[in-house]
Amino acid sequence: MEIRSIVTDEIDKFSGINSTGEKQIKFKEFLEGWFQEGKTKPEWCFVVEKGETFIGRIIFWAFPDQPNHFKIAGLKLPHDDEEVFYEIAKKLITEGCRKVSGDKTTEFEYHLYSKNNDYFNNYNKLLQECEFISSQEKSSFLNEGSIEKERYSDITFRSLNVVGEKEFVKAIELVSINTLDTEDQLSIETLGSEAAALEYYNILKSIDLNGHWWQLAYDRNEDLVGLVVPQKLDETHGAINYIGVVPNKRGNDYVSVLLIKGTNILKENGLTKVIADIDNRNFPLEQALYKVGFKLDSQMINYKK
């Protein structure tokens, strides 16, 4: 067995590992989209090759402005024999990490979801054996149905295009005070609140920037209440990728107002499935998600190395 990166004319074969028909076509389109956006390239896509057959794969990708922070996706491995699974998987992950990092100091990240994963416990064990550390446990919520329309006349929304980048970044800093998100808290402790807010703003821009969709909310006294960042992921999926209420406005259920606003923006623009991933410690946001019509979809562990 050989572990190697692919070349351009192997994309069809790479996409077809454990996939056929429409599923293979969609994966290929998704991968080619990442190539065009500069998030990954063939030399960051690795396979386990046995003879002339691809039996496993892994994709490393990064936002263009974070070239030393790789995320892992598209991990497919044979599960017929548990011993073989661990042997192949460890080689694929460790060899891939070594080759993409070269002589640079590099961070790797993998989001392990429980949904549609019969081998969730195996992957947990595998990542730990590859020296990945669990950095955060999250719950993934999904809304596929209707959601109530906005009915809060005392709240005014202004988009990023109206308020500008400086005010939006400042709002991120304010809503992050005493955050219940483990990774946001660590970022603030490491970088300071202002730098952490700017970094997160830039990460959000790298995912999907629509200045008409990103919203700040104000009360009738023109005081900032909070913010919501709805983003498009693909043709059917959107996400509430950031949401928060400033400390002195918490406890008034404004988070539900923000959720309704963000979700309706996505629904009105044709995105039928709306995702929200939250830290397991964030009970107020969890309660608000249930209240406005989201359902728990899966659990997720964020691993880093």
Description:
The chain is an alpha+beta fold and 305 residues long. It folds into two domains: 2-131, Gcn5-related N-acetyltransferase (GNAT) (Aminopeptidase, 3-Layer(aba) Sandwich); 156-298, Aminopeptidase, CATH 3.40.630. Helices cover 38% and strands 29% of the residues. The chain has helices at residues 11-15, 21-37, 82-101, 120-129, 160-163, 165-175, 182-191, 193-207, 254-268, 283-292, and strands at residues 2-5, 45-50, 53-61, 69-76, 107-113, 133-143, 156-159, 215-218, 224-232, 237-245, 273-279, 295-304. The protein has a twelve-stranded mixed sheet with strand order 1-2-3-4-5-12-6-11-10-9-8-7, with helices on both faces. Helix 7 (182-191) packs across helix 8 and helix 9 (254-268) crosses helix 10. The two termini are 26 Å apart. 31% of the residues are buried. The model has no long low-confidence stretch (mean pLDDT 92).
